């Protein structure tokens, strides 16, 4: 599912809201998550999962084409850990 499909589904399920307002709500939620992660905060959505930021230290990597050693700077990467309810729902038998 992509963002526009999410907006459309929410708009269809809430006919009393304009699609433009639903789009603004979805964008506000995503922007809030991104801003919190940029500050280094953890964002937890109970039953769904938690978004956090992990630090990757600097290291020596290898160019796959040439085999040449390349220095890779330290960086921060987004990390998502699924919540128990989501994990259980995906793995139900």
From TrEMBL:
Molecular-function GO terms, alphabetical: DNA binding; structural constituent of chromatin
Record-level GO cellular component terms: chromosome; cytosol
Keywords: DNA recombination, DNA-binding, Transcription, Transcription regulation, Translation regulation
Origin superkingdom: Bacteria
Any one Gene Ontology BP term: regulation of translation
Pfam families linked: Bac_DNA_binding
SMART domains: BHL (SM00411)
CDD domains: IHF_B
Entry keyword Translocase: no
Subunit: Heterodimer of an alpha and a beta chain.
NCBIfam families: hip (TIGR00988), PRK00199.1 (NF001222)
Function: This protein is one of the two subunits of integration host factor, a specific DNA-binding protein that functions in genetic recombination as well as in transcriptional and translational control.
Family: Belongs to the bacterial histone-like protein family.
Name recorded for this polypeptide: Integration host factor subunit beta
Source organism of the structure: Oceaniovalibus guishaninsula JLT2003
């Amino acid at each position: 599912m992509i963002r526009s499909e999410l907006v459309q589904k929410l708009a269809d399920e809430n006919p009393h809201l304009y699609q433009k307002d639903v789009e603004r709500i979805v964008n506000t939620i995503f922007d809030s998550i991104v801003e919190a992660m940029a500050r280094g905060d953890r964002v937890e959505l109970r039953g769904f999962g938690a978004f956090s930021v992990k630090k990757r230290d600097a290291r020596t990597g290898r160019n796959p084409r040439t085999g040449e050693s390349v220095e890779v700077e330290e960086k921060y990467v987004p990390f998502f850990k699924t919540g128990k309810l989501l994990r259980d729902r995906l793995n139900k038998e």
